[in-house]
Specification:
By secondary structure, the chain is α+β, with helices and mostly antiparallel strands. Helix content is about 45%, strand content about 20%.
């Protein structure tokens, strides 16, 4: 899969780890990860882009998916694979 996947995350976030595992299980080889715990300015960026302050915040291509619950809902509905295909 060649679609760009970006995830805002923190180091010790179980939902971030679960999101990464789900994306990899669906064939995503590379995830750009922005650690908002290390770069506070990036947390501000995340909040401005998404309107949310919690992690993870996931983008697939230009689509803001949301957090882990949103990602897993897309997967259950069968729409995640389609989104990842571009």
């Amino acid at each position: 899969m060649t679609v760009h996947v970006l995830m805002y995350r923190t180091e010790h976030c179980p939902y971030c780890q679960r999101a990464e595992a789900l994306l990899k299980a669906r064939g995503v080889a590379e995830i750009e990860q922005i650690r908002v715990d290390l770069e506070p300015a990036r947390r501000v960026e995340m909040a401005e882009r998404t309107g949310r302050r919690t992690v993870p915040q996931i983008f697939i291509g230009s689509t803001h998916v949301g957090g882990f619950d949103d990602l897993s809902a897309l997967d259950r509905e069968g729409r995640l694979v389609t989104l990842l295909a571009g």
